[in-house]
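Why this split exists: single-chain examples teach little about how molecules sit against one another. For that reason, every record in the complexes split bundles all components of an assembly together and asks for one structure covering all of them. Below is a record exactly as it appears in the raw files.
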Amino acid sequence: MMDFIWLADSSTAIAQAELSARELCGMILAGVGLLFFLGAAVGLYRFPDFYTRMHAAGKGDTLSSLLILAGFALITLEGFSATDWLLVVKVLAIVLFIMLTSPTSTHALMRAGFEDGVEPVTKKPKKRGGSKKK
Amino acid sequence: MTTETFTLAVGVGLFVLMLPALYRVAVGPTSFDRLVAVNVIGTKTAVMLVVIGTLFDRLDMFVDFALAYALLNFMGSLAVARYLNRMRPMPERKPRRRAPRKKEAKA
């Protein structure tokens, strides 16, 4: 027990002086998650079709949520007391929940759109790129 | 760069990257586009609650909000997806029960 208290004190002392390795890992995870969310946002903004937008949103959104939450779970884990571990377990529960539910809702929305008759974009060489208007 | 600055930067970045999704909510051609974008914004709001909790140093309070928000977002998304799925009449099923009954009647 005394060892844990000593570890907590030393880690907070290091965190005040400079970034510890744990915080650096958390920052890297959250930064990579933001990068993936940038991909999802750009895909959601620019893709031509419902299905392609769904592709970008589903994958990028899920992975970026997981990465950002894992990064902040690492950043939050300052000491090794029971309350800190409870926080980390709760954040990891959110991670697990998003990992289960986000593909499920993506699948449900995709199926609803498909059965409702949303048409996918197809290649039309006459209309695209030609100067003639039809 | 301290942890607080980084947390604030991640929060602002999440908000700025939500704006294209908000654009897709506003001008999406079909209602499913809007629904996908609303789902993305809801998931990111749950993440953003964790970021805000880290920033205010009250993560023990905000993490429960984030968990509840993720649950409600999933439920709402599934409910609206099922509702829009039923707007079109379901395709007719082939009757499977009648064939054995006819056999029984003939026999």
